[in-house]
Design goal:
Elements lengths: L2 H9 L4 H16 L2 H11 L8 E3 L2 E3 L3 E3 L10 H6 L4 E7 L12 E4 L4 E4 L8 H10 L7 E5 L7 H15 L5 E5 L14 H14 L6 E5 L5 H13 L4 E4 L18 E4 L3 H12 L6 E4 L5 H10 L1 E6 L1 H6 L3 H15 L5 H4 L6
Parallel strand pairs: 3-4, 3-13, 4-7, 7-8, 8-9, 9-10, 10-12, 12-13
Antiparallel strand pairs: 1-2, 5-6, 6-11
Helix pairs in contact: 5-6, 6-7, 7-8, 9-10, 10-12
Membrane topology: Peripheral membrane protein
GO molecular function: dihydroorotate dehydrogenase (quinone) activity
Subunit structure: Monomer.
Length: 353
């Protein structure tokens, strides 16, 4: 029996953000003890050559990553890779520290295997994250860095915010993601406005001397035409991929939605985010990182067949615990085998005409 099935009811008695702090505190403790890290690795890592993915000039041992938001401040990404994840995306990192929204701001919807959050870019800021990354000489898998703006920035200063985080953390990211799709930051201006995006991408690419892979993370609400327009801009500025999707403000598929503002993640988001991936993959050859409602080998495989080269999850990890990556990766190898594929890469986009 997985110990998490015993621990989960205890964690779920705590407020969701407090439980998250306990879990990350535990991971930090483990991370500081070499033999404990090795024990974690041997228990939770599942390795198989069919799982390896070449993407963004980097080798990923497996396609299952931790989505942005879990390790906002780069505190536990080594332990997360010990838990068998093929990569971790830290952040969203903002240039300065900020408190985010008042608590409570994270809510569980256990009946729907979902979460609602309105964290609001709480974080330690780029300098603190820089110190942690510089001190960590033991990063296991590839590291993505998700960059965002301060909550009080306007359209003009937001562009400088992205640039400041990008430049400050530049040496440490195997890829960077511009997050223009958080539903929990103030609606001062439309972050996904095409002209605004052009200016962000132009500014970041001008600073991108070593051509580090640069991606954009989008929300699940965009209609087909807007997705095509976004891809055209992404290609014009030679970005390297798209992360799809962030959380949704919709409550579709939720049995009894609580009266809480924020972004919905988990199972109710799954089909919507897969549909966005399929639309993107039908229109562009750019790699897509698929995220939204993944919690099993089947749901990860659906994202891959829809066109995702890599997959991420957050909510599924909260519900399924430390064996999440191992179980998904083990199941993926079986699903590949059943369909006669020798590798993940052969299955990417199999459902696209
Ligand atoms: C508590 C919480 C905090 C999050 N914070 C961020 C964030 O800072 N930046 C970001 O790009 N996405 C953030 N996300 C969104 C996730 O990265 C992911 O896109 C979304 O939750 C859908 O995946 P899931 O259904 O596997 O959770 C957050 C999600 C949750 C639940």
């Amino acid at each position: 029996m997985d110990p998490y099935s015993l621990l989960r009811p205890l964690f779920f008695k705590l407020p969701a953000e407090t439980a998250h702090e306990y879990v990350t505190g535990g991971l930090r403790a483990i991370q500081s003890i070499g033999p404990a890290r090795r024990a974690l690795r041997s228990r939770y890592t599942y390795e198989h050559p069919a799982l390896a993915v070449e993407c963004f000039d980097t080798t990923f041992a497996n396609p299952i990553g931790v989505a942005a938001g879990f390790d906002k401040n780069a505190r536990v990404f080594p332990a997360l890779s010990d838990l068998g994840f093929g990569f971790v995306e830290i952040g969203t990192v903002t240039p300065n520290s900020q408190a985010g929204n008042p608590r409570p701001r994270l809510f569980r919807l256990p009946g729907d295997r979902a979460l609602i959050n309105r964290m609001g870019f709480n974080g330690d800021g780029a300098d603190a994250v820089h110190s942690r990354l510089a001190a960590n000489t033991d990063a296991a898998g590839p590291l993505g860095i998700n960059v965002g703006k301060m909550n009080d920035s306007d359209a003009e200063t937001a562009i400088d915010d992205y640039r400041r985080v990008f430049e400050r953390l530049y040496p440490f990211g195997d890829y960077f993601v511009v997050n223009v799709s958080c539903p929990n930051t103030p609606d001062e201006f439309d972050e996904a406005d095409p002209d605004h995006l052009r200016r962000i991408f132009e500014t970041l690419q001008a600073a991108n001397e070593d051509d580090v892979p640069l991606l954009v993370k989008i929300g699940p609400e965009s209609p087909r035409e807007s997705l095509y327009e976004l891809v055209d801009i992404v290609e014009a500025y030679e970005l390297d991929g798209i992360v799809a999707t962030n959380t949704t403000t919709s409550r579709d598929g939720v049995t009894d939605p609580p009266d809480e503002r924020g972004g919905l993640s988990g199972k109710p988001l799954e089909t919507r985010s897969t549909a966005v991936i399929e639309t993107l993959a039908g229109y562009t050859e750019l790699p897509i990182v698929g995220v939204g409602g993944v919690d099993s080998a089947e749901s990860a495989y659906a994202k891959i067949r829809a066109g995702a080269s890599l997959v991420q999850l957050y909510t599924g990890f909260v519900y399924n615990g430390p064996s999440t990556a191992r179980e998904i990766n083990r199941g993926l190898v079986e699903l590949l085998h059943e369909d006669g594929y020798d590798s993940i890469e052969e299955a990417v986009g199999a459902d696209i005409d």
